[in-house]
Design goal:
47% of the residues lie in helices and 18% in strands. With 349 residues, it is an alpha/beta fold. The chain is globular.
């Protein structure tokens, strides 16, 4: 099992410049500690995400790190032109010297899509068209042409090519059967989220579709079977279970407030089941659902092993280790304990 790091970089009640500086320090430490990747979300018009243009932050991070892979989970292909996305992918792949991982999606929040004048019911169709266009542009010759329902280009000069050939690996994160099936059919790398039972169902759905595809479109060395099978979990490690719970509680509650901010603003309470993310859940609920893993190194190792078994086996843990309004010092200590005390004990899972 390899371990990557996920982040929304959400509002923490601190100046934005401070927030960004802290994250650069946190991920520079993760680079030195040997974590596999940093993968950022894209959200809009909400305190859950203060990097709505994640490529800008990844460009800065590319110059602060040397080994750790950098990517998105996910770029919202519904909200930008494929041509602009092609150029951004190429730039970031070169800025990072070939460390880019490209996670893509349509956008889980109808509110965010509506702010951009995109109807949620049309978003999957737009997303799939954008993805096909993206592949055509990344693999074409000196010019790029594509004709689809939503995007059309003809004889566009191509000045940029990715560092990685033919292009960086594509990832998909999903909490529903439709997305899990589509990702498997494309041979993508995959991460599930949400409560353990639901995440297990989506991983099983993905594996079934992947088997029909015949495996990963871009196999990755170091992962059994060549395909990333991951799960997203918030993780807090401290010297004792009590100390870990103390550190985690406030940030977890702050995070829940941010993630529910748009739902509450619109007075909408019925998205939880579809989104497979905590709605009105509290601190103890997200622990019991398996969404938050918290404790001493020994407790965290046990919980990860239990979840891996319940999920049907995963080879990638996407750990969300600095969330809510967590203090940088607490996050760095948690990361250090995880890297030195936990990762060596789960590497063979």
């Amino acid at each position: 099992m390899k371990v990557g790091l996920f982040d929304h970089i959400e509002d923490a009640g601190r100046p934005l410049a401070t927030l960004f500086d802290e994250r650069l320090e946190f991920y520079a430490a993760a680079d030195r500690a040997g974590f596999y990747a940093v993968q950022l979300a894209e959200h809009h018009c909400s305190p859950i995400n203060m990097v709505p243009v994640p490529g800008v932050f990844l460009g800065a991070l590319a110059r602060e790190t040397k080994r750790i892979k950098l990517g998105t989970l996910v770029y919202l292909l519904t909200l930008t032109s494929p041509l602009k996305m092609i150029e951004e992918i190429c730039m970031l792949d070169h800025l990072s010297n070939g460390r880019l991982e490209v996670g893509i999606g349509r956008g889980v929040s109808p509110f965010e899509l509506n702010y951009h004048k995109v109807a949620f019911d049309d978003s999957r169709d737009i997303f799939i068209d954008a993805y096909k266009c993206l592949l055509a542009g990344l693999t074409g010759g000196d010019t790029f042409s594509y004709e689809g329902k939503h995007f059309t280009y003809k004889d566009v000069p191509v000045a940029l090519r990715p560092f990685q050939q033919p292009y960086p690996a594509f990832w998909y994160g999903s909490s529903n059967e439709t997305g899990s099936t589509w990702a498997g059919e494309q041979g993508m790398h995959f991460t599930a989220n949400g409560p353990t039972r639901m995440a297990a169902e989506n991983l099983a759905t993905f594996k079934k579709a992947l088997a029909k595809h015949g495996g990963a479109a871009q196999p990755k060395a170091g992962f059994v079977g060549g395909t990333v099978l991951g799960c997203l979990r918030q993780v807090v490690v401290a010297d004792t279970d009590a100390e870990a719970r103390r550190i985690a509680k406030g940030p977890a509650e702050h995070h829940l407030g941010n993630i529910n901010w748009l739902r509450n603003k619109h007075g909408y309470k019925d998205l939880t089941n579809r989104l497979r993310t905590p709605g009105a859940a509290g601190f103890d609920d997200v622990i019991s659902e398996g969404v938050l893993i918290v404790g001493s190194p020994e407790s965290v190792i046990r919980q990860i092993k239990e979840q891996s078994a319940a999920l049907g086996g995963i080879n990638y843990l996407l750990a969300y280790m600095m969330f809510g309004n967590m203090a940088l010092g607490d996050a760095l200590r948690s990361q250090e304990l995880f890297a030195t005390e936990v990762i060596p004990k789960i590497a063979d899972l």
